[in-house]
Amino acid sequence: MSDPVLSSAMLSTDAIELVGMIAGGLTTLAYVPQVVKVWRSRSARDISLGMFLLMNAGILLWLVYGLLIGSPGLIAANGVTLGLTVAVLVAKLRFDRLPTAPVLAEPASDSV
Amino acid sequence: MSDPVLSSAMLSTDAIELVGMIAGGLTTLAYVPQVVKVWRSRSARDISLGMFLLMNAGILLWLVYGLLIGSPGLIAANGVTLGLTVAVLVAKLRFDRLPTAPVLAEPASDSV
């Protein structure tokens, strides 16, 4: 049941851990362009508040889990990720109060 | 260096693994409200394309990593997550071509 499905015999442990490290780097760095976008445009209406509430809670628990098992990799990745997901959440809470999105606003038809 | 920072002696291994499972559940489920939001509103302009390209690549690698180490938990969580992040990416690519966001469009000032 928990036997590796892919043939891990063909990859060294180092190579496998490298895959994990690249995966962790990507899923952490992914939030950077989202943070830049919402803070630059001052618009976050299409962002789901529910997503970022759940995501912040989840990342915080991953950080706690990393601390409990003493994993420097989990602690570092989730510490950085938490900073980024908090930045998106703050943007959402802040910019949704603005009447319009001033920077990236597009001309809208009055007939809608 | 890799000694647990929190006192894991106070928590059983089962309790620690429960924290990890809740964390994994939250960071997977978090995408559900985002998927519902963009497909309902047919608007994804505030969503970062860069975020979801990087996130899909990262989640795919987490899935590969789970297969390589034979972890049913990683495989299940990242399999479900990948389906959800692909759904957001497809919405982004599809709805950004629409001239306006018809459902949630708001009256915009002409004086921008």
From TrEMBL, chains A, B:
It is a multi-pass membrane protein. It holds the Pfam family PQ-loop. Keywords: Membrane, Sugar transport, Transmembrane, Transmembrane helix, Transport. The chain crosses the membrane at residues 15-36, 48-68, 74-91. It is found in: Membrane. NCBIfam families: SemiSWEET_2. This is SemiSWEET family sugar transporter. The lineage of its organism: Bacteria, Pseudomonadati, Pseudomonadota, Alphaproteobacteria, Rhodospirillales.
